[in-house]
């Protein structure tokens, strides 16, 4: 993973006051209707695989009481494809760079609000929550802050900055990243100007200042490489426990989740849960999953499975308030600039086309894939008999290779597909190919790869996987594709 101090992060928009808490989202059609000419111009750039657009992510997440967010850069909103996706899909926005110290207070006491206000305005116009990022961070600081060596002077500078920024948007922001990236990888304190000059107490001081400036907002601590249980996340856990015990206002922990394909921590869900058990909310705040570029079909399949696994971990923890992806599309991602040879980390490619990761992410939220015309409402799932499956196993002592062929018998082409089956007891997925495979309990899932999502009426698609077993190698007796029960042959 990386030291986030080497990257430039996106900016945050702010908007007028709204009630705090998890809010229901409006339909994507409403967002598009108010978007005007910009969104109309974007229509040709958005995916056209379905005659009707899939259900927006924001609506699917709302059914779980969660929000799905995006890091927004107001400078890109003039690009129709970027704007249309941001407006349609997300129920929360966070600024990539616009609310950071160097953007808001480049000279002491001299504030610049233009970019941050644009994000706030976007949130207001499109009925999204606003997440504040970030008030105190060792990076992207103006030189005048780094140069302060007197504790009283730095304390005044920090608390004045928090008061000004959080105060300007008081009542508008649902939650603030009050302090960002305070840990080194070994769980010791990062050697920032705040740590050197003010000592360990600066985090509590910043939280108290934020509470005074914006009593309604949740106050969060945010860091990267704390997604799994390790020295760094242990340090954050101990800090939050101590702050809670001391009566310091801390309401949430953000786990950035800048991940590498195939490396979702196995302890992610357990880690989210242990923080939640402290009495704070948790959120995946900056999710992207980078792969080598140009991205291969195999790496995109793995990435899709990873996006689904992260979403399922959040949904399994009651106090996980949602997931924010760190950017709209691969063409506006920070990853390639910081990690040469890596990228393709987001849900849409640089042409604003949805990737397998989008399909898997949407499926994990339970989003309706859509059908009919562009403005048709969602319809019921296909009736039984719209698909047929043959499922065979080539077994050995402790494992087997499963071969699955799915035939579209519906009479209508599938623009994408998701297969689900209940595996017999003792069977466990090891790996798969030609789809993004995952398993939750006995439920085995496969989401189409980028190259085999479209299945014409009467056509078939073949996929496979390896699994372990404890004696029973029989095929599932119930299989669905896109929610429709399939005939099994």
Automatic annotation (TrEMBL):
TM annotation in the entry: 25-46
InterPro entries: CBD2, CBM2/CBM3_carb-bd_dom_sf, CBM2_carb-bd_dom_sf, CBM2_CS, GH, GH10, GH10_dom, TAT_signal
Listed EC numbers: 3.2.1.8
Domain GH10: residue ranges: 51-364
Catalyzed reactions per annotation: Endohydrolysis of (1->4)-beta-D-xylosidic linkages in xylans
SUPFAM superfamilies in alphabetical order: (Trans)glycosidases, Carbohydrate-binding domain
Keywords tagged on the record: Carbohydrate metabolism, Cellulose degradation, Glycosidase, Hydrolase, Membrane, Polysaccharide degradation, Signal, Transmembrane, Transmembrane helix, Xylan degradation
Entry superkingdom: Bacteria
Similarity field: Belongs to the glycosyl hydrolase 10 (cellulase F) family.
Bias (Basic and acidic residues) ranges: 1-16
Name of the protein this chain belongs to: Beta-xylanase
Entry-linked PROSITE patterns: CBM2 (PS51173), CBM2_A (PS00561), GH10_2 (PS51760), TAT (PS51318)
Domain called CBM2: residue spans: 380-489
Region (Disordered): 1-22
């Amino acid at each position: 993973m990386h030291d986030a101090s080497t990257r430039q992060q996106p900016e945050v928009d702010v908007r007028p006051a709204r009630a705090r808490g998890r809010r229901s989202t409006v339909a994507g059609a409403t967002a598009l209707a108010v978007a005007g000419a910009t969104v109309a111009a974007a229509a040709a750039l958005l995916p056209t695989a379905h005659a009707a657009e899939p259900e927006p992510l924001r609506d699917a997440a709302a059914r779980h009481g969660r929000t799905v967010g995006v890091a927004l850069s107001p400078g890109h909103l003039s690009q129709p494809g970027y704007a249309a996706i941001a407006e349609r899909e997300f129920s929360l926005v966070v600024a990539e760079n616009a609310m950071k110290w160097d953007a808001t207070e480049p000279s002491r006491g001299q504030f610049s609000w233009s970019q941050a206000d644009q994000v706030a305005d976007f949130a207001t116009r499109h009925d999204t929550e606003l997440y504040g990022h970030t008030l105190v961070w060792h990076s992207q600081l103006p030189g005048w802050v780094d140069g302060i060596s007197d504790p009283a002077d730095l304390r005044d500078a920090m608390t004045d900055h928090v008061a000004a920024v959080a105060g300007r948007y008081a009542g508008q922001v649902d939650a603030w990243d009050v302090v960002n990236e305070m840990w080194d990888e070994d769980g010791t304190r990062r050697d920032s100007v705040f740590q050197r000059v003010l000592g360990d107490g600066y985090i509590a001081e910043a939280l108290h200042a934020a509470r005074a400036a914006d009593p309604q907002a949740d106050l969060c601590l945010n860091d990267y490489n704390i997604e799994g249980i390790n020295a760094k996340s242990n340090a954050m856990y101990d800090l939050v426990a101590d702050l809670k015990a001391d009566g310091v206002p801390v309401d949430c922990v953000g786990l950035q989740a800048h991940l590498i394909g195939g490396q979702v921590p196995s302890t992610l869900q357990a880690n989210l849960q242990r923080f939640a058990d402290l009495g704070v909310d948790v959120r995946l705040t900056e999710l992207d999953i980078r792969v080598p570029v140009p991205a291969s079909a195999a790496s995109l399949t793995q990435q899709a499975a990873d996006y689904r696994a992260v979403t399922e971990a959040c949904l399994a923890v009651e106090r996980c308030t949602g997931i924010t992806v760190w950017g709209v599309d691969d063409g506006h991602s920070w990853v390639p600039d910081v990690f040469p040879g890596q990228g393709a980390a987001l849900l849409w490619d640089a042409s604003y086309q949805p990737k397998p990761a989008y399909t898997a992410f949407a499926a994990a939220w339970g989003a309706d894939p859509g059908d009919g015309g562009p403005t048709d409402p969602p319809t019921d799932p296909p009736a039984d008999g719209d698909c047929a499956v043959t499922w065979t196993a080539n077994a050995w002592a402790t494992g087997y290779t499963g071969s699955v062929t799915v035939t579209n018998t519906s009479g209508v082409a599938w623009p994408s597909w998701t297969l689900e089956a209940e595996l017999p007891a003792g069977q466990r997925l090891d790996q798969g190919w030609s789809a993004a495979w995952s398993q939750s309990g006995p439920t085995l899932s496969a989401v189409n790869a980028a190259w085999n999502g479209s299945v014409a009426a009467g056509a078939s698609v073949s996929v496979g996987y390896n699994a372990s077993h404890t004696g029973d190698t029989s095929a599932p007796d119930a299989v669905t594709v896109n929610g429709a029960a399939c005939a099994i042959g």
